[in-house]
Design brief:
This protein is mostly helical and about 160 residues long. It folds into 2 domains: about 35 residues, no CATH class; about 100 residues, 3-Layer(bba) Sandwich (FAD/NAD(P)-binding domain). The protein is about 50% helix and about 5% strand. It has a two-stranded antiparallel ribbon. Strands 3-4 form a two-stranded antiparallel ribbon. A hairpin with a 2-residue loop joins β3 and β4. α3 runs antiparallel to α4 and α4 packs antiparallel against α6. Bound molecules: flavin-adenine dinucleotide. The site of flavin-adenine dinucleotide (FAD) has 10 residues, from α3.
């Protein structure tokens, strides 16, 4: 589907082909999908991170500032963190442009790391080559949890507290 198309009606057979094997004892996806009145497809899209996103008295927040792939489930979480930081930056000052600049600079490093991690996770999750898939699965099964936690550190924010 086109990357910028946000209201894309899919053909049932296109979708069914991808979910044909999704039949579990507790869930039968093909039957569920066949029962739908309409099937819409949404693109997975992100953008390369920006170093900051303040424009004088205007700033961005959430997906407008740092759209990311949903592979780590972080887009909404980061929008909430943005809101907290924005409120903290604006509190007690009349210098709005300086506060907005502070806000975007404070947030850019963390959100950039999470955009990048989300891209990496998406690439890993969508491998198609069977050898690469087997290697990925073996590596992830065998990797010590400390290594996985290190990789996720920019996401879970080890040792970092949001200003409130
Ligand atoms: C498949 C998928 C799974 C996800 N899973 C997770 C998850 O598990 N955890 C998580 O934290 N995040 C997840 N996300 C990401 C999360 O949904 C988004 O990052 C989050 O909704 C971004 O919030 P936002 O307020 O920045 O933007 P949006 O939620 O997109 O809100 C923008 C709003 O502005 C409105 N709007 C647009 N243009 C105009 C206009 N011209 N005038 C007026 N209104 C307008 C839109 O209709 C919309 O309501 C997922 C995303 C996807 C696609």
């Amino acid at each position: 589907m086109p990357r910028q198309e946000w209201d894309y009606t899919s053909r049932l057979d296109e979708v069914l082909a991808a979910f044909d094997s999704f039949r579990f004892g507790w869930l039968d996806m093909p039957t569920l999908i066949r029962g739908s009145e309409e099937v819409l497809t949404y693109p997975m899209a992100d953008r390369d991170p920006l170093p900051s996103w303040d424009f004088g008295r205007v700033t961005l927040l959430g997906d407008a500032a740092h759209p990311m792939l949903p592979s780590l489930g972080q887009g909404g979480c980061q929008a909430i963190e943005d809101a907290l930081e924005l409120a903290a930056s604006l509190a007690g000052t009349d210098d709005v442009p300086a506060a907005l600049e502070r806000y975007s600079l404070r947030r850019a490093r963390r959100t950039t790391a999470i955009v990048r991690r989300s891209q990496q996770m998406s690439r890993l999750a969508h491998l198609r080559n069977p050898v690469a898939v087997a290697l990925r699965d073996a590596l992830l099964r065998g990797a010590p949890s400390s290594a996985l936690l290190r990789w996720l550190a920019p996401v879970i924010g080890q040792g970092r507290q949001l200003r409130t």
